[in-house]
From TrEMBL, chains A, B, C, D:
GO biological process: inositol biosynthetic process; phospholipid biosynthetic process
Pathway(s) the chain acts in: Polyol metabolism; myo-inositol biosynthesis; myo-inositol from D-glucose 6-phosphate: step 1/2
Protein name as it appears in the record: Inositol-3-phosphate synthase 1
Function field: Key enzyme in myo-inositol biosynthesis pathway that catalyzes the conversion of glucose 6-phosphate to 1-myo-inositol 1-phosphate in a NAD-dependent manner. Rate-limiting enzyme in the synthesis of all inositol-containing compounds.
Cellular-component GO terms for this entry: cytoplasm
Domain Myo-inositol-1-phosphate synthase GAPDH-like span(s) in chain numbering: 279-390
Keywords from the UniProt entry: Cytoplasm, Inositol biosynthesis, Isomerase, Lipid biosynthesis, Lipid metabolism, NAD, Phospholipid biosynthesis, Phospholipid metabolism
Location of region: Disordered: 398-418
Organism taxonomic ancestry: Eukaryota, Metazoa, Chordata, Craniata, Vertebrata
EC annotation from Swiss-Prot or TrEMBL: 5.5.1.4
Cofactor (UniProt): NAD(+)
Length: 418, 418, 418, 418
């Protein structure tokens, strides 16, 4: 079956104009009311109108940590696809593709055709979307290596591909960035040779200037800033510091504290979530969802990870690991809370997450997990996984097993900085 | 959070009477029309009315292969729960439960409460359902062992539990059954000492008589017949034999051939599917769904299984394995067909399924799987699983890791035999 | 082939008398001399005389930490074998055995018979040895539970076996012991209700008195003291404290410091080694030996362990883990140093050892290892292991997968304390 | 520690002359005599004299199946080492080496030096040995591809290495060979385009002529013929056909039947064994040796393999797999027979070996094993392995994880054919 690339919705709820597609949608769900020990369930309906511009914007992407493994690989991936590169490997020539991208390689079911067969379209055919080939990249890095050198240091891509990309990547050079040793691991200081001078306030002003400069120079309609730098240390919420949008703007920072959420709401900006992607953690959420939804009582989850890239080194510092541990541990909570039949209030499985730095394995992330669940009448199910993720990056949508089990932002920056 | 046990729907679409709950539901989906290379998508809506009796019936369950590991364990599980048994194990006393049952241990989200918190109720609180404790069991088996002896042979349950169940199980004795060596493996003949004499027609008449007898003796409102016997050999569709309901009734058989489906439609009977449950195969469907939905191109799936119970021995015969292989292989097809971006027409991953009989492991099923998927730019993801399923049966709903990775019926019998 | 149980050596080098077996043995090896860049190899021969008493002694064993999982299981194992117990399990009756014991279940090749077939005898047929059934047990523990209660707490043995052992174990009660919170993890204080009062010197005197008392009461010829308590914290060598036998006797302690070795030599006492047994670590030594001996260059070894017994809790304290980490890491060093072709001076594989406390898995130790080795021309071999060790103890000889992946003594006490 | 490269033995038992090294060695062992239920053990000693030429011969190697993955990779490996090639990979430049070769990368302990330190020398320093760099290659193949093309088809080596080797490999072209479809899998016929015409007798004569031709043309002192072609079908011993050396020479064949052994003895030629090397099987022999020697009773061994190269395809034919299965199964027998304490006469573990053809994984062999062993008192140890062997060949000595888990010769040809 060939993926259809275009379709028209024939419905009074969908109106096409030359500029926009306007869709009305009734979102039906239920409201639950507790009245004297009885639950009352009432249907509710909300009418949404979605208006989508048919002309996609010229879009720039600025990466924090552009020269890291993720940043350099993402940039290389878009270039390789745009240039339709292919390169030799011992298993034959490989062609650039967007495997692992929800929008480029994922599909959506449109419905049934006359023969009762499901019709699937590529995810990116659903609505007008910017093609990743058209993205314009820029970014910051505390290391001054140009993107070609960064790509070589990352040791992610095949040599034959690196060779072809070299002249294109060489011209790309990260802007100076901000390095605060207390926030990322001290072991990163050897890389830090490309820094913005001055006070924090001056540094902030430079960052804002960089964004305006990029937008203007490249004649962009929009700029997205993505965190792909090292995991920062864990950040407590402090009253008067990062609890409100107003306080946040005085102290300026990039973690997903309440003030950042409030600010995003004020400016009607999306918060992209607090993790660029996911490998083992995503598989865990899928499996725990399956196990508990099946009525099995998962009793222990033990997750061991090791990797040898720069993120691994950064995470070998306790404070950075703490931040990662929090994000990795919480993935189970929702599922446990969804099943009060299996888990009493406050009860939860043993859950242990370990990340170790093992230089030899490089960017080939390894994850070893063990799930033990109780079955009826004292039976147990033990599921053991070993996952090897040899390089690879999901370019646009955060999903699958990507180059970044580790580049964990505590928040995509939603601040209207420029 | 405690699971709420009852709720009321306040909606004009739901009407409660003393006898029934009547619900109207608009099922909205889309129809796709291909017109000159263009896909047209039209919304459709179908109004369903669901009427559910508030008084649950007195329900009998007849198992084909009652004395097998599944049949004896399912019966024991219901008894242990009904009698609220507990028994000592080296890790402390265990209590009977229904872990692994969708209806008894699964939950459903009702909606959000006033604080925006999701409210979950047990699955069995959704609508009036028969409690598994109230099921009445009967069945057939080619082996004459009573259910207590069958339980001991199965080696599934802890000794301390078996001891308490013994007097209750001892009185249960399977009815004589039909043994056709060509349909299940010849290695089963040693068990076959409890057979209905006579011609095929006489045997059929006895089976029908058994069902009527059970219903009458136990004063049952309904009887469900479940196949939990060995996997039968693979069955081709033969014109004039099993292609229509009419032909089927002349030749009578229990596999899910087109005639059986037609007959079920004529009598408005549900077809329960073609597999009692699933262990490795279910995990595979979850993982392949995740991988391909994420845009990863899964290239090879290798699944090795071994087990040491009677099903393992039966499946060591090639024709029975063929039948199992078909059901286990097809699980990937839907996902591959859903993504024409990744897979060209006719392209599919290497997929290999092996089942071996290893007596020592007994009813502890082992599954070893390897999934290899391609990432962007030539990267690969290799996921290796080892799954140990120590005994256990999901009693009512077919799900989770149950005692039967193997007792694969080609069809739950939908025939109005009595 | 049946294991022969007795044999006679007919050789002028072996002389049997009613009391002893006296054997002369020439140990031939080589001496290497470095002379001006050239290695000279000279054969050497040393004549040993081994005299073995034919009458085995009445032997007592005192366990430090008698009430722990190891101590209680070892005692139970000897009792179960001595009493020839059998007990029901769901997989049939089990009989007491000494599987996992080098001396009781291991064999040795005697040589070839007239038909050129190898003849094997049980290890314990080689020379007169004390049968484990004849051992007399006693010991100390900081917890006052009697051995029956300790066995139940350990959750290691099947219920049916525990029941039969109970009256025999109940009468066994550990002597009060010494608890110094700084030396084992603080999380052990909840157990410490059975302590010797007084100063360190008074405690030492009581320990010596206990040994004399045990020997006298049971009319023993010899007493062996075995450490099976928690791993102590890592111990540095301090001049004037534990560096010589003389200093050690003033400060008295039980770790394998140089002073302890010197003292053992002075008294011609064997030092039993610094680890009671081995599970994952033993497998690692076998595999690394195999890999490097085969000329493969092992580049990374990552070992994850988790367990849920009291040792796991003790090891969750950093100082105790440090001690364990040292003993677990050194296993690779010898092999690396044995191959200067593969490893340059100072070069070694990445080696990472993690031990986590996961209460749910109890005494079922889990080990996940990953070995990555380089092959010729850039190929790699990745070996991943998952090892589940469900209870079990090797009673006499330290080997196999035993109940104690964790009860790591830093030294069997060689001190002539009584 | 640097590996010493040369040494001198100073002993009256070792005499160096300009041409030879002559060593006398007393091999001491024991003889066992059964006399009336008593075993008598008598020491024996045999004096051997080993004379080794100090001048290594000019040595040719002829490979049966030269153009296969093993043959082409072995040839490439020797060339890459001889030419001291290095090539780029994404993880940096790699240099040619002999990792995985017992003789080139293995070491041997010479003895202790004056400081009590063990002194290790490379295995190949023990006695004069031909360096693999000096080997001269030739061989036969049923496919006419030259060695460069064969190397590309094999997809084993990195592109950058292949590129440099191409001109050297291109000139090497296998001699026509013999293809008897009944002996290797019919699925190999597509490759068979390079065949010796004529009757079997004429084909044999041509093979003999090839050996003489190679020896003469290259001025070789010795020629070794190695089987590295596909696994042949299982071969029964037939009286009058392959039971004696005489019969064998009339019917001529290359499997390790009794006649071949007799012929080898008559000509004082070594029989190299019946398997070129081993991956999973070697690991199994190491682990089973360890487990049973430790007194653990291994109860089930389940070994699953899959691979995607031509050997995998050949082995997907039942008769070829049978041959492999026999060789893979027997590895456990010796260990089981060595321990009559654990295994009664005739008792053995469940042992199951599966090999599947999964094209996608190519020459990356995957092995999944599960070992279950019984511990004392009903405990069990379950060891699960996943082994990935990414290409690689052990060039001279058969060991380690090599390119040929599959190219199983039933016998290296010991026949004095030329």
């Amino acid at each position: 079956m060939k993926a259809a690339s275009a379709f028209v919705v024939e419905s009074p709820d969908v109106v096409y104009s030359p500029e926009t597609i306007e869709a009305h949608y009734d979102y039906r769900t239920t409201r639950v009311i507790r009245e004297g020990g009885v639950l009352k369930v009432q249907p509710t309906s909300t009418r949404f109108t979605f208006r989508t511009a048919r002309q996609v914007p010229r879009l720039g992407v600025m990466l924090v940590g552009w020269g890291g493994n993720n940043g350099s690989t993402l940039t290389a991936a878009v270039l390789a696809n745009r240039l339709r590169l292919s390169w030799p490997t011992r298993a034959g020539r490989k062609e650039a593709n967007y495997y692992g991208s929800l929008t480029q390689s994922g599909t959506v079911s449109l419905g049934l055709d006359a023969e009762g067969q499901e019709v699937f379209v590529p995810f990116n055919a659903l609505l007008p979307m910017v093609a990743p080939d058209d993205l314009v990249f820029d970014g910051w890095d505390i290391s001054s290596l140009n993107l070609a050198e960064a790509m070589r240091r990352a040791q992610v891509l095949d040599c034959g591909l690196q060779e072809q990309l070299w002249p294109h990547m060489e011209a790309l050079r990260p802007r100076p960035s901000v390095y605060i040793p207390e926030f990322i691991a001290a072991n990163q200081s050897a890389r830090a040779n490309n820094l913005i001078p001055g006070t924090r306030a001056q540094q902030l002003e430079q960052i804002r200037k960089d964004i305006r400069d990029f937008r203007h120079r490249e004649e962009l309609d929009k700029v997205i800033v993505l965190w792909t730098a090292n995991t920062e240390r864990f950040c407590d919420v402090v009253q008067g510091l990062n609890d409100t949008a107003e306080n946040l703007l005085c102290t300026i920072q990039n973690t997903l504290v309440p003030g950042a959420l409030e600010l995003a709401e004020q400016h009607r900006v999306f918060v992209g979530g607090d993790d660029f992607k996911s490998g083992q953690t995503k598989v865990k959420s899928v499996l725990v969802d399956f196990l508990i939804s099946s009525g099995l009582k998962t009793m222990s989850i033990v997750s061991y990870n090791h990797l040898g890239n720069n993120d691994g080194q950064n995470l070998s510092a306790p404070q950075q690991f703490r931040s990662k541990e929090v994000s990795k541990s919480s993935v189970v909570d929702d599922m446990v809370q969804s099943n009060p039949v299996l888990y009493a209030l406050g009860e939860e499985p043993d859950h242990c997450v370990v990340i170790k730095y093992v230089p030899y394995v490089g960017d080939s992330k390894r994850a070893l997990d063990e799930y033990t669940s109780e079955l009826m009448l004292g039976g147990t199910n033990t599921l053991v996984l070993h996952n090897t993720c040899e390089k690879g990056v999901a370019p646009v949508a955060p999903n699958g097993c990507t180059g970044d089990t580790n580049g964990h932002p505590q928040g995509a920056s939603p601040m209207p900085m420029a």
